[in-house]
Amino acid sequence: MKILQDILSQSSLIFATRIVGAGLVFLVQAAIARFWGATLLGNYMLIMAVVNLLMLIMPLGFQTVGSYFASDYRAKKDAKMLKKFIFHSYSHIVLMAIIVAIIIVPLASQFDEIGQKITEAWLPIVILSSSIAIMYVNGSILIGLKRPFAAYFTDSLFRPMSLVAAFIIAALFFSEHEGYMNLLYIISFLYMFIALLQFFTVVKTAHNIEDLVEEREKESKRWWRFAFPWTLIVLASDFFFDVDLIILSAFLDPHQLAIFGVSSRIFILIAFAISAVYAIIVPDMFEKEANNDRDGFLQKISEANLIASVLSLFLLLMVAIMGRFILAIFGEDFTIGLWPLVILCSGLLIRSIFGPASLVLSIYDRPYASLPSVFIGFFSLISLNYLLVPNYGIMGAAIAALLAITIWSASQWFVALKLAKINISLFSIAKYYSLKPKALDGK
User: Domain locations in the chain?
Assistant: First the structure.
């Protein structure tokens, strides 16, 4: 299976660079905990959670569908429409960055302790969120244009390397609180520089795409129809724990928040390996669609789903064995996060078993069908946090997250089964292969 070899080879290299980059990030976070204390680490993680949520909003969802439409236009050789999509994506970031810069301080002042921390760092927050938003749009488009290494290496290696450099400067020349604030300023400007360099790679790559489409229909409505639901889908998957950390800041003290934050970051790193498996097949999927090869299209999804599930199980076992040693890097008191971490990673396995339902629903032109599952998942998360965290602390937070992920994944799988007539769960793969012609007729 050539697709199997391609996925394993490319995703292994991408994941390896992600491991190196994550190692650098963990090193900086561990250094913050040891040099400046767990409280400042908790504050740093809270600020970065706010940055990540703003970053998700600024492109107005276009970073979530960049690979989708870039793959589509590359396969159709529609360079003009690709360039229009790129222009719209970046113009949203500029507009939203201006709006955020105007409203962030008045809005944050409405909250007590959390608002004070945000107000204090409002300028780095705006620059960081804008920079990372540009990087995510860059990466999404480059994936669709079959430049996965150019997409992932910026986020996997260059960003962590700049973070290390910024911390060294801040730690050497400033005291604890001053060092923390200057760290935010330094990385914000370094991130913007890296984002702009990657942007020029996007422009150069898009310029090389052929333009063979003469008659074009307006695509802007289609962009928005996909972008909005996928923003919420990505929020519920990639930024699930950024939302969770902000919610938990009302229940946990900064020290506990730092421990759970570290555990959730390890989970996010592991989840990236699974995301890389699916991201690599996206351009090939659109080529199959463009060539009306639906059988090959469905086969690629099935193989990627199987690989993701097996990889999730392997990584869960590795976390159970090595997790304590990784957490101990931050300090011995962080090792109490081992079992919460194992519980969180179990959620990744559950998510992989249920399959990429959101992707399938979008391919079948029903992206909005995922939204009820997203709302159910977040409602479950908030409710379960309220019930479990006050009595069980970070263990309760982990159980709440696991149950919310399970409810959300099962709900999306069920919707995909009913609407797309495809069962993409791990336990139905053999049956799924035998029913491919039927699934095609059902569409």
Answer: 2-437
